[in-house]
Amino acid sequence: MVRSKEDKIVERIAYIVMILVGIIIVVPFIVLFVSSITDEAVLLKEGYSLIPKKLSMQAYSYIWKSKDTILRAYIITIVITFVGTTINVLITTMIAYPLSLSYLPGRKILSFVVLFTMLFSGGLVPTYMNYTTVLGIKNTYLALLLPNLMFGAVNCIIVRTYFQGNIPVELYESARIDGASEFRIFSSIVLPLGKPILVTIAIFAGLGYWNDWMNGLYYVTDQRMYSIQQLLNVMIQNIQFLTQYGQSGGENLPSISLRMAIAFVAMLPIIVLYPFLQKYFEAGITLGAVKG
Amino acid sequence: MKNRKKLIHNVKRFLPLYIMTLPALLYLLINNYMPMPGLVLAFKSFNAQKGIYGSPWAGFKNFAFLIQSREFPIILRNTILYNVSFILLDLFFGVLLAILITEIRRLRARKLAQSLVLFPFVVSIIIVSYMVRSFIDHESGLLNHLLMNLGSGSIQFYSKSQYWPFILIFVHLWKSIGYGCIIYISTILGIDRSLLESAALDGASWFQRLRYITIPFLKPTMITLSLLSVGRICNSDFGLFYQVPQNSGLVMDVTNTIDTFVYRALLTQNNVAMSAAAGFFQSVVGFTFILVFNGITRKISSENSLF
User: In sequence order, which residues have a C-beta less than 8 Å from that of residue B150 and are 6 or more positions away?
Assistant: First the structure.
């Protein structure tokens, strides 16, 4: 493309603005990390800063020793994220496949049942009552798993549309002629060919589970079931939570740097995986925007 | 006879497909449909022993309490005003950043900019509220240190409500701008390059190309995204309004929205009546808004509507 002088000026402005925006985005992350490795006494005296005045790994060694609290919450979060994401992807694709077949009788009604949940919801009060009194999930691990299992209908619709556009119906037909059952078709045609979209919804589901703190807030009061985000949430209100919880060494608990260290550790898997998964994540956003 | 054979054939053929839909339908039943009738709670005077359906009817009493309460006009105002400012600012900054990012020709630099803008979107709001605190904490916040170094005193942000509209809008933009931006970028990159090139050859300036080619191409996306947000005008980002001000009571006049109100009334004040009435209002008005604005979206571009 022929580029005028004007175009080059615009590009230069774009660079300058994006560098400024980049700084605004990155600085809070740096402050968080730096305060997690700063000596607690310095933090209390001089406050947060961008450069660590006195390094200390006390907060991280504390995390490493806290098998019953912080590490436990971390492991709970990992397990819940894995289990929840797997179930989410499985049940989403299992309904999306039949919905993608135009000849399935009753497809319109089924689609409506799914779609309607996007438009209307009972809201927090009836949902809370349903989960606590009818289903009794309060203070069980189900409370962390069940309420955000499928993230509504958006994923269903995205996956259905992907199947319709990317898997030729002839494949199903010839598999059926060869005597394959629907479950067989699902596992050996739909799942392998749908892989890109499955990765995409898995990222969204996984992220939702990893960052979830609301279900803990609503349904979990038992400290042994805290997820890492809920632990962080409790520690905002109550910095001495860990000492009250019977963790040893409470006398010189590095409270500020410890909070920041937990926050950093909670963010670490996302920071590490983000570059690899970003492509799928962006694809998911552009697909999901159209529907939801 | 023939019909029966056909029926059996169909059942055999389609039954496995229906079975596959069952786990998801069961989940929707438990998570979405079972709570819906519970909305009648708004018209009942709740008795925990008798449950939602056994409690006696109260007519519109709960709503009368809600409307007469001091909080109701506040939460309504906050929810709507924050949403309106978010919609306008998301649109403006999202499009602006998308235009600038797509002006960057070096692919790696452009990808980096894209990743950076989107990254805060994947961080949990709890961690974001820790970051906010590290800037505005009364004693040790970076911003307060800066103010003190400049000679003015530090500000007790968590107890001064005049700052919170700006803080919340800034945090919202910081965290969520990438979402819309990514969508606008993909729309801009979808514009036929030759169109822009021939316009440039014909002597169109950068602004003219922006005005007559890029913006018109973006318009349907801009309208769709904004209308979808207007449809959700009764909902607010609970995390943003609850976590970022760290549940501070002193600034609640400018941070309380319908969602934080419903939560507090239900789980910390045990005021089920008030909470159910506000929740009912949110569900029903929200539903109406979604229907109306989805209808408008469908009129403008049918492939972008929800249904």
Answer: none
Distance CA(A94)–CA(B151), nearest Å, equals 64
pLDDT in tens, A179-210: 999 999 999 999 999 999 999 999 999 999 99
How distant is the Cα of B100 from the closest Cα of chain A, in angstroms?
5
Identity (one letter) of the amino acid at A261? A
Are B233 and B207 contacting, i.e. CB atoms less than 8 angstroms apart? no
**B288/A contact by beta carbon, under 8 A:** no
Contact at 8 Å (CB) between B155 and B194?
no
The ipTM estimated for the assembled molecules is: 0.91
Of A123, A152, A181, the CB nearest to B282: A123
Q: What are the beta bridge partners of residue A38?
A: A55
DSSP B153: P
Q: Which of A24, A35, A229 sits opposite B134 (nearest CB)?
A: A35
What residues in chain B have per-residue pLDDT under 50?
none
State how far residue B79 is from chain A, nearest Cα, in angstroms: 16
Q: What are phi and psi of A127, to 5 degrees?
A: -65, -45
Total-model pTM? 0.93
Instruction: Count how many pairs of residues, chain A against chain B, have C-beta atoms within 8 Å.
Output: 280
Measured CA distances, A253 to A37, A244, A257, B127, B211 (Å): 14, 11, 9, 20, 59
Q: How far apart are CA A139 and CA A216, in angstroms?
A: 9
Q: Percent helix, strand and coil across chain B, each rounded to 5?
A: 80, 0, 20
Burial of A165 (0-12, 13-18, 19+ CB in 10 A): exposed
Residues contacting A32, CB < 8 A, separation 6+: A260, A263, A264, B127, B130, B131, B134
Q: How far is it, in rounded angstroms, from Cα A282 to Cα B186?
A: 9
